């Protein structure tokens, strides 16, 4: 006889503990969060995992970087990133044409990976982050905010634009020997985009966003 | 406050938002009860369910696919009508022959060194948990953290192939086509990423926690600090 699991939704105001304490995600040790100065971090007492970093104006700065990132991302997709000149012919390359070229070369699986890691996930991350930060900033958190942010966090490792940047460098050096490689307009936007994304991930600690959601839950729980 | 883990305190930390949820019972295997996070409504578990067997399955699949990834050609470069298929290793040697050793080193590290290291580390971690090892839990956690962080960079070779395929399209004069090895290699990278994701590093510490149940965890942490000072 197989036991049917009971489904239990934890009451919302129970998340109060999380405002003062944190469990290390890598060793499960429960510890309190001490008051922090700007750019100070809490490390786990026994495994040294960075648990939380206090950033100055975390939400505002991240919102600025995310909007900048989205604009740069649009420009980076509008024009060629690289062009190759040989035999009087020119071949352009964009993020999308790279995925398309793999599809035409009978590698649909590689093409889908390319499409997801360089186009779909980076775009959803940028748009989603802007949407959530705007909600948090204007205090218009609804029931979809938490599941959406959860989705963004789980796809975070699959956005691979910085790896694509490195791959472009390799391709430039490799092809530079045999043909003329021309930098496209979008390449400059792309480099700035990578810089912006790095700053975004350095200025936003997800803990801050979750805390806003938890604070709201706790307040609602107390009012009921 | 006496040091304790979230599980010992009757709390489950959400995998996504790390919210601490107070639950009536935290069992070793959460099959009797399903709990949902108070903050993000995802299903919560004290430990990732079936962590070891899932990681094993993904690891074995990755190790098997690693063989075709290295023996089959990852791409074929055709110049003036004739072309030669390249495997990962022969690609590295070609770069070395043409004097581009920094590039050769980069591709070697990203495509050979990191995937092999990742497979070895993950296998070691799973074995160490399986045999309830007490060996340097902090260093093992650090190894796990490194594996999780560097794994995605192995994709660089796949992206290089993609860029070359899209740029070098001059018919019979010069063209690049992706090989079947690239498919296996990207599968290895993705499978190991999932394997690292399904491994729960808290299992490393559960062994230590069980061992130190008699003494308090506070003493254990204190002991570690003392040791660190004397070293």
Write the topology of this structure.
The complex is a heterodimer of chains A (224) and B (231).
Chain A: E1 6-9, H1 17-20, E2 21-23, E3 29-32, E4 41-43, E5 50-53, H2 58-78, E6 82-86, E7 89-93, H3 95-104, H4 108-137, H5 145-155, H6 161-176, E8 180-183, H7 185-203, H8 206-223
Antiparallel strand pairs in A: 2-3, 4-5, 6-7, 6-8
Helix pairs in contact in A: 2-4, 2-7, 3-4, 4-5
Chain B: E1 4-5, E2 11-13, E3 20-22, E4 33-36, E5 43-44, H1 51-71, E6 75-79, E7 82-86, H2 88-97, H3 101-130, H4 137-150, H5 156-167, E8 169-170, E9 174-178, H6 180-198, H7 202-211, H8 217-230
Antiparallel strand pairs in B: 2-3, 4-5, 6-7, 6-9, 8-9
Helix pairs in contact in B: 1-3, 1-6, 2-3, 3-4, 3-6
Overall description:
- The complex is a heterodimer of chains A (224) and B (231).
- Chain A has 224 residues and is α+β, with helices and mostly antiparallel strands.
- Chain A is elongated, with a radius of gyration of 22 Å.
- In chain A, the strands form three sheets. Chain A has a three-stranded antiparallel sheet with strand order 7-6-8. Chain A has a two-stranded antiparallel sheet with strand order 2-3.
- Chain A has helices at 17-20, 58-78, 95-104, 108-137, 145-155, 161-176, 185-203, 206-223, and strands spanning 6-9, 21-23, 29-32, 41-43, 50-53, 82-86, 89-93, 180-183.
- In chain A, a hairpin with a 5-residue loop joins strand 2 and strand 3 (29-32).
- Chain A starts with 5 loop residues before the first strand and ends with a helix.
- Chain B has two domains: 1-46, no CATH class; 54-230, Butyryl-CoA Dehydrogenase, subunit A, domain 3.
- Chain B contains eight helices and nine strands.
- Chain B has helices at residues 51-71, 88-97, 101-130, 137-150, 156-167, 180-198, 202-211, 217-230, and strands at residues 4-5, 11-13, 20-22, 33-36, 43-44, 75-79, 82-86, 169-170, 174-178.
- In chain B, helix 1 (51-71) packs antiparallel against helix 3 (101-130) and helix 1 packs antiparallel against helix 6.
- Chain B is elongated and about 70 Å long.
- Classes of the chains: A alpha+beta (224), B alpha+beta (231).
- Chains A and B meet through strand 1, strand 2, strand 3, strand 6 and strand 7 of A and strand 1, strand 3, strand 4, helix 3 and helix 4 of B.
- Strand 1 (6-9) of chain A pairs parallel with strand 4 of chain B.
